[in-house]
Structure formats: structure tokens, C-alpha cells
């Protein structure tokens, strides 16, 4: 792996961590701000109903944004969203996943004459100088690049893509060749034997060497769609070539040829549920499904591996369709729903988006898979509380876990908006 010079790294990290945000939010109390989203929604496949269901969740989430700290607030301590936690970095993966869906909603709202959501995203990105979370090679920390690409598509301001191009150029010039085997590393001082923390801006970041490549399922949502979209918008084939090479290295490592699903990472290769099935995490495989759908949106139709991408996508989606539960949701453990018998909306929304996008792209058969989308969308809308809060979201983690009705997270809101954007296309006027 490349070791960049200290000065350059320090400049990049300092600018990432000190960049301010500007966000136009109401000065009224949270209770007052929530009143305007407290209206009924339905899961009908008609465009006005889908639009209303998306708007309600989008608007409630924005009432949680603190314009002084530039963070979403109101999460309990177990949600890993404190100002000192790496996951709460406003340019990290949690926020990036939210913005991926929010950009789709902004585009839809803008088409209806409401540009306010685009303007909010524009202000956030501009004031943040289009920068990134600190780890140069980690897909979690450059996933926010999709926001800048989405804004560039609309506003065509070249400065939006400058930091993204710089970081990706560094990666291409000195790519990591580390093993994809997943492990946390603890470093200790040779002088004091104290554990050394990897800290930036008051946040502690875990040390996982293989994350300098795409060694975990989530990375296939965070990383390659950004590279391939950048290739499309700039015409630079090198970005696509790099993403294609690394994508298939990850697929060869994490793809389960027997069940046509993806392990979250190498720690799960030998783990089994009580029923003897493999541990396939719903959100983990959901990240891959949604990531592949996004890749296929921008992968050239004449790409020499297009058929190969579509093949694993179809196989995975067919297998996932068979694991959907009767209520339209997937449980945290896909192949052992009884092990964690909780409703779960983040993995469900990511998968539902992939199904709907696959249909809209003409890759998945509509007659076969539309019922899957319909059941999932009905379940997702049903998980929205009267005030607009999306519940039943498994908290930040890496394996199937318990979930409650009150659990929510912004990455799930992003996935919900992604799904809604595709359901809207499938719906009647």
C-alpha cells in the first residue's frame, strides 16, 4: 500500500475534518418541526402516494439535523452516532449512504418544482469543500463522492470533482495489494505498551488493514458505484478499469457459489446458524444488491463483462426473492429468519431498491419480481411512524442482530428514498 508524504496526508486530513457546513433548518423546537410531516401515507403504487410517502420520511429526518454541529441527532448511545465516533463523521459512510438516497429524492422533488432539497445538499457539499473522511483508501470514507457526482451532474461546477479525482488518482498510481482477509489490528507503543489509537479530529477509527481494498460486502455499495459513475461523467476509462478489476477480486472472495449470496467478510466463511445455514447478513447482502444495481445503471451496455455483472445480479436477486418473508421484509439473518425474528428495514430497503431498479433497467423480469417489490414497499411504508420516523432499523454493526420498532438510522432513510425513487418509476400516474 502506498504511504503518501506526511505533509500531503496532513493537509488532506485537516481539510476533511475542519470543513464547516451550512444548513438551512428551522429554529423551532423538534416537536413543532415534526407537525408538518404528521400526515397519513399509503403504499399504493400510484405516483402521488409514493411521492408523499418519500417526502414524509425525508422531511422528518431533516428535523433531526443540528445546524450547529452539522450532525443528525436524537440517537441513543448504542447507535454509534456520538460526535466522537468514526461512524458519525459527516463525510463518512453513514452520511454518504443517506445522501445517495437523498440525491434521488432531491432530483424527483426538483422535477416537481421543489428545489429546496437540492439546495440544501448543494450548500452542505460546497461548505464542506467537496472533501472526504480521512482514510484515503477506505471505501467508507470516499463513498460521499457520490453526492458530489450527483451535484456535478446538475450544476456542472468542476471544483466539485477535484478532491475526488485527486484521491482516486493516488489510489490508481499506488494501489493497495493487501490480502482481503478481514481482521481488526491492535497496535501498541514500543515504549509504553499502551494501545495506540488511530484518531482524527477527536474520532477513533478502527484499524482493519484489508479495508484499503473492498474486502467487506458493504464496500461494494460504497466504492465501485462512485468509480464507475466518475468514469461515465468524465469519460476517463481508467476509473472503470480499476473498479472492474477490484470488484471481481472481491466477488471471487465473498461470493457464495452454492447459495448465490455474499458473505459479509471472511470472518463468516465458516460460521453457521443453529439451523445449519450460513450466516448471511441482510444489510450486508443488501449493500451488495443495491451496489450492483447502481453499478449497472452506469456500466456501458457494450462493456465486455456486462453479461457477467448481470448474471450474478440475477442469480442473487432470484435467491433473495425466495428468502423474503410473508410480511414483505427480510430478517437480519437471511437464511435463518428464526434466529433473529425481527422486522428489519435497512436491509429490506436496499434489496427492494435493487429489485425495482433491476426491473426498471430491464434486467429482471417484471412479472416475476414486481410482487416482491410491492410486498417490500408495503412493509417499508408500514414501518414509518405517524411523525415520519422510519423504524425497525438494525443499528450499526456487521452481523445479524436484534432490532426494535424505535430503532432508526439515516442510512436506512437513504435506502428507503432509493427504493421510493424506483417504485415511483414503476407506479401509475
Automatic annotation (TrEMBL):
InterPro entries: 6-hairpin_glycosidase_sf, 6hp_glycosidase-like_sf, Glyco_hydro_88, PolySaccharide_Degr_Enz. Pfam families: Glyco_hydro_88 (PF07470). Residues 1-24 form the signal peptide. SUPFAM superfamilies: Six-hairpin glycosidases. Keywords: Hydrolase, Signal. One of its GO terms (molecular function) is hydrolase activity. This is Glycoside hydrolase family 88 protein.
Amino acid at each position: 500500500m502506498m504511504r503518501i508524504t506526511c505533509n500531503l496526508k496532513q493537509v488532506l486530513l485537516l481539510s476533511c475534518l475542519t470543513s464547516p457546513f451550512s444548513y438551512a433548518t428551522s429554529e423551532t423546537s423538534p416537536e413543532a418541526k415534526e407537525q408538518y410531516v404528521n400526515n397519513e401515507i399509503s403504499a399504493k403504487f400510484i405516483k402521488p402516494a409514493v411521492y408523499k410517502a418519500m417526502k414524509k420520511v425525508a422531511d422528518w429526518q431533516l428535523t433531526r439535523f443540528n445546524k450547529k454541529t452539522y450532525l443528525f441527532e436524537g440517537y441513543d448511545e448504542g447507535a454509534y452516532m456520538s460526535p466522537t465516533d468514526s461512524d458519525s463523521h459527516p463525510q463518512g459512510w453513514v452520511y454518504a449512504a443517506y445522501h445517495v438516497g437523498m440525491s434521488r429524492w432531491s432530483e424527483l422533488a426538483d422535477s416537481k418544482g421543489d428545489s429546496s432539497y437540492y439546495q440544501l445538499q448543494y450548500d452542505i457539499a460546497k461548505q464542506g469543500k467537496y472533501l472526504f473522511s480521512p482514510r484515503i483508501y477506505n471505501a467508507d470514507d470516499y463513498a460521499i463522492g457520490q453526492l458530489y457526482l450527483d451535484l456535478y451532474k446538475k450544476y456542472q461546477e468542476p471544483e466539485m470533482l477535484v478532491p475526488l479525482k485527486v484521491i482516486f488518482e493516488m489510489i490508481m498510481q499506488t494501489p493497495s495489494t493487501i490480502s482481503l482477509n478481514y481482521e481488526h489490528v491492535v497496535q501498541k507503543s514500543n515504549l509504553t505498551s499502551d494501545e495506540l489509537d488511530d484518531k482524527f479530529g477527536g474520532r477513533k477509527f478502527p484499524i482493519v488493514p484489508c479495508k484499503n481494498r473492498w474486502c467487506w460486502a458493504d464496500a461494494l455499495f460504497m466504492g465501485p458505484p462512485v468509480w464507475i459513475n466518475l468514469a461515465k461523467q468524465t469519460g476517463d476509462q481508467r476509473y472503470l478499469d480499476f473498479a472492474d478489476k477490484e470488484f471481481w477480486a472481491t466477488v471471487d472472495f465473498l461470493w457464495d457459489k452454492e447459495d448465490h449470496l455474499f458473505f459479509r467478510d471472511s470472518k463468516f466463511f465458516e460460521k453457521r446458524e443453529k439451523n445449519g445455514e450460513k450466516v448471511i447478513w441482510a444489510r450486508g447482502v443488501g449493500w451488495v444488491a443495491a451496489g450492483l444495481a447502481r453499478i449497472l445503471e452506469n456500466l456501458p451496455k457494450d462493456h465486455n463483462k456486462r453479461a457477467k455483472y448481470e448474471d450474478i445480479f440475477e442469480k442473487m436477486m432470484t435467491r433473495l426473492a425466495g428468502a423474503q418473508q410473508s410480511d414483505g421484509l427480510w430478517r437480519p439473518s437471511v437464511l435463518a429468519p428464526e434466529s433473529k425474528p425481527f422486522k428489519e428495514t435497512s436491509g429490506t430497503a436496499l434489496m427492494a431498491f435493487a429489485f425495482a431498479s433491476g426491473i426498471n433497467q430491464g434486467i429482471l423480469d417484471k412479472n416475476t419480481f414486481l410482487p416482491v417489490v410491492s410486498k417490500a414497499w408495503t412493509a417499508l411504508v408500514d414501518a414509518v411512524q405517524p411523525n415520519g420516523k422510519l423504524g425497525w432499523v438494525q443499528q450499526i454493526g456487521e452481523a445479524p442482530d436484534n432490532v426494535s420498532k424505535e430503532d432508526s438510522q439515516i442510512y436506512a432513510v437513504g435506502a428507503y428514498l432509493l427504493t421510493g425513487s424506483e417504485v415511483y418509476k414503476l407506479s401509475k400516474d
